[in-house]
From TrEMBL:
<comment type="function">
    <text>Probable methyltransferase.</text>
</comment>
<feature type="domain" description="SET">
    <location>
        <begin position="143"/>
        <end position="268"/>
    </location>
</feature>
<dbReference type="GO" id="GO:0045814">
    <property type="term" value="P:negative regulation of gene expression, epigenetic"/>
</dbReference>
<keyword id="KW-0862">Zinc</keyword>
<keyword id="KW-0863">Zinc-finger</keyword>
<dbReference type="InterPro" id="IPR001214">
    <property type="entry name" value="SET_dom"/>
</dbReference>
<keyword id="KW-0489">Methyltransferase</keyword>
<protein>
    <submittedName>
        <fullName>MYND finger domain containing protein</fullName>
    </submittedName>
</protein>
<dbReference type="GO" id="GO:0008270">
    <property type="term" value="F:zinc ion binding"/>
</dbReference>
<keyword id="KW-0808">Transferase</keyword>
<dbReference type="Pfam" id="PF01753">
    <property type="entry name" value="zf-MYND"/>
</dbReference>
<dbReference type="GO" id="GO:0032259">
    <property type="term" value="P:methylation"/>
</dbReference>
<dbReference type="GO" id="GO:0042799">
    <property type="term" value="F:histone H4K20 methyltransferase activity"/>
</dbReference>
<keyword id="KW-0949">S-adenosyl-L-methionine</keyword>
<dbReference type="InterPro" id="IPR046341">
    <property type="entry name" value="SET_dom_sf"/>
</dbReference>
<dbReference type="InterPro" id="IPR002893">
    <property type="entry name" value="Znf_MYND"/>
</dbReference>
<feature type="domain" description="MYND-type">
    <location>
        <begin position="28"/>
        <end position="70"/>
    </location>
</feature>
Amino acid sequence: MVVCGYCRRPLRCRSDEEREWMERLSRDEVCGAFTPAGDSERRCDHCREEAYCSSACKDVAWTTFHRRLCPQQPHAEVSEEQQEALHQLWKEFRGVFGELPLLVGKLIANVLTQLDDGKSPEQAVDSFEHFVVYPREAIKAEDPVAYDQLVRMAHITNRALFDPRIPQLFEESVYLRLAGIVLLNSLGIDFSCPVLNTPTQADAEQIKMMEFDGAVVCPILSSLNHSCQPNVKSTLRSQAQARGDSCRVSLIAKQDVEPNEELCISYVPLSWTRATRQTTLLKNYFFHCQCERCVSEAAEAEDAINM
């Protein structure tokens, strides 16, 4: 899927099969969760690097981060060397390393736009202080190649975005800290799938195949604990998108929630086995899950062994 550069809403399909299926649907048959190929896609007026689902998302992206990331930004104070580094940065964003450098770049650019808008350096970085950080040592131990790539990206970002008003933001350790924030705090969200007025069985099967998740870094979501039997899930709903509020993440109750009951989400796919869930949670989040489901499944496994 190609997604909006701001709200991460899906824009169009990559595969021929998905594209053909979407294009044969009339506009009024789709609930608005998807934008068929070539339909109402907006791009940055200057660089054309990122696509957006709406003019609103394009404008908000420019205001909050893209005006500092744009390799063709119309600012006289941007040196030729910085523009060259910005072009290199975008080449790296489109590389095989995934979206992590792009997300970190957007976080840094957001800090710079806040400075441009009159905030102090302390105010601009305040939102980062509330996140738990994935340990730098864990990144290096887990994947040395990825760690070296992040260090390289830190140096490219320094050349492209350095701002003397906040030099500490461009230290290698700070870049790795921001990468750690994204790694540990980005949580999966479900996007609403197309809803057809008169779906055929083939359409229903295709919708099932096209189900997918996005990811979001959100302070409130990041404060929720994990359970393998969660009472809420996070979602980006098409109803919100229809109101032009496409980047609003909602928590949807999966069951009745009692007053003062803790809200929990799942950090891993619920269809996984207990062993896989436990291994992934320990590797990525550094804890052994002792939720009711895990305790129950462990007891069942022990009973089966003792029979």
